[in-house]
Amino acid sequence: MRRAVLALILALGACGDDARQDAAVTQCPKVADGDVAIPGGVMMMGARGKMPGEGPPRRVTVKPCRMDRTDDTNAEFAAFVAATGYVTRAERGPEPSSLVFVGAGDGVDLGDPSEWWRIVPGADWRHPTGPRSSIEGLDDLPVVHVAYEDALAYARWRGRDLPTEAEWEFAARGGLDGATYVWGEERPGEGKAKANTWQGAFPLQDTGDDGFRAAPSPVGCFAPNGYGLYDMAGNVWQWTSDQWRGDLTATPDAAPDLAAYDPADPYATQRVIKGGSFLCADNYCLRYRPAARTAASAGDGASHIGFRTVLRPQDPQQASAKEGAP
């Protein structure tokens, strides 16, 4: 786990126990549950000249599907756990723990991300910043500290799946093929706040101009994209089903082991995460764009990684969807 967590820290770049989660206090309108129809179509996937791994751009076709309107929330994940007794990776032994953003103060080495990340014993989806923290009253926040297998288990319980990278990117674009951001070309800090991102010099100070300071926000606090999806930029990263590869040159029928290989961390199984998080800033991450992508160890969660699910008409799970699931 330690090797995988180090890889995650270096890839994302981006105290304690309960101060961070308490920062999410801004009131937001309640967003309707459920999913929305994604029409499918053709898009230019990826980008050129932005961040490593985002190209070369290539044209792909995505089939229609239905995608969760928001990131899956604490309340929704709690219902899954109550119904199944599921225990997440972060809660299992021999050393229950997860990766938590703890911030950085004056005098830290800004070239060393381990200065502002910690593997915190007792941190998990119920205790987002450590054992003394809680999600009480935070039902509408996206669930975090879920490993890939945890997210997939929840999706399967609902008779659904995790989106592919292409499905996720197509949905995030909301019909704006080729646009830099999910809302168009205006930068996140221009005009009305468009997403929960980091304002200020990362990792020293988040000014909170968007209403949230160095913490996740409840789902649906910002305007949806053209397909009616919320938080496809910022807030928390989202798992996809694709194994990580260092660029977009691999074809869909490439050998899975070859497609997933990352020379920077050759011993870990990694998946693509998309969307950026509340820790993404112009001066450091810049990954709150549809084309942005990075790798995360499939076996680990973190305080800024969540997910949403997808339903494809051809999915065999649709026929066996759990009756009464949300």
Structure, described:
With 326 residues, this protein is α+β, with helices and mostly antiparallel strands. It has a single domain, classed as paralog of FGE (formylglycine-generating enzyme) (Alpha-Beta Complex), CATH 3.90.1580.10. It is built from five helices and eleven strands; from the N terminus they run αββββαββααβαββββ. It has helices at 2-12, 74-84, 148-157, 165-173, 256-260; strands spanning 35-38, 41-45, 58-62, 65-68, 97-101, 117-121, 237-243, 270-274, 294-297, 305-306, 310-311.
Our measurement of the CA-to-CA distance between the termini, rounded to an integer number of angstroms, reads 32 Å
Q: How helix-rich are the residues, as a percent range? A: 10-25%
The CATH homologous superfamily is called: paralog of FGE (formylglycine-generating enzyme)
Might you state the CATH topology name? paralog of FGE (formylglycine-generating enzyme)
At the first level of CATH, the class is: Alpha Beta
- Return Rg in Å: 18 Å
| Order of neighbouring strands in the sheet with most strands | 9-8-7-10
- DSSP summary: helix tally: 5
Mean pLDDT: 85
For the sheet with most strands, the description reads: 4 strands, mixed
Strand content: 5-15%
Strand element count = 11
Low-confidence stretches at least 5 residues in length (pLDDT < 50)?
1-25, 253-260, 318-326
CATH architectural arrangement: Alpha-Beta Complex
Q: Write down the secondary-structure element order.
A: HEEEEHEEHHEHEEEE
Number of domains: 1
